[in-house]
Every structure is written in C-alpha cells, then in structure tokens.
Specification:
Order of helices and strands: HHHH
Distance between the termini: 16 Å
Number of strands: 0
Structural class: mainly alpha
Largest sheet: none
Radius of gyration: 19 Å
Strand content: under 5%
Shape: rod-shaped
Number of helices: 4
C-alpha cells in the first residue's frame, strides 16, 4: 500500500502546476480588454462579449488539465 501511495505522490509531482498559468494570463488580458471596450471605447455590447471569454478560457484549460491527470492515473492502473 505504501508503494502505491509513493507512486501516486510521484504522479502528482509530475503534473505541472503551471498548466493553467497561460490560461490565467489570457483570462486577465481578456478582462482588461473587456473593460477597455466597455468603459473607454463605450462599446458596451463588445465589452460584454469579450467579458465572457475568461470563463471559457479557464474551462478549456481545466478540461485539458483534468485529461492530463486522468491519463496519469490510467498509466498507474496499467
């Protein structure tokens, strides 16, 4: 049992914690862009549209991160 715990710990260390870093930066950028369109340019509809991007970006990044974790766990079971 301890051997399995060590293997799971090794896999957890292998999974990049930075995987969402790029997505977070893109999300922050899109929030800034949305605020720019909404308040500076006065284009409220475009600002609201761009404001919807961060959730989509983070959802896609989370999906890929979960797939990476699933693949690592499948390797462990095999």
């Amino acid at each position: 049992m301890a051997d399995t715990d060590d293997t799971v710990a090794d896999i957890a260390e292998d999974i990049d914690a930075d995987g969402l870093g790029t997505a977070v930066i893109a999300s922050i950028g899109s929030v800034a862009l949305a605020l720019y369109f909404y308040y500076v340019r006065g284009d409220k509809q475009r600002g609201q549209f761009v404001g919807l991007w961060p959730t989509t970006i983070l959802a896609v990044a989370s999906y890929f991160k979960l797939e990476e974790i699933r693949q690592k766990l499948d390797e462990l079971d095999a």
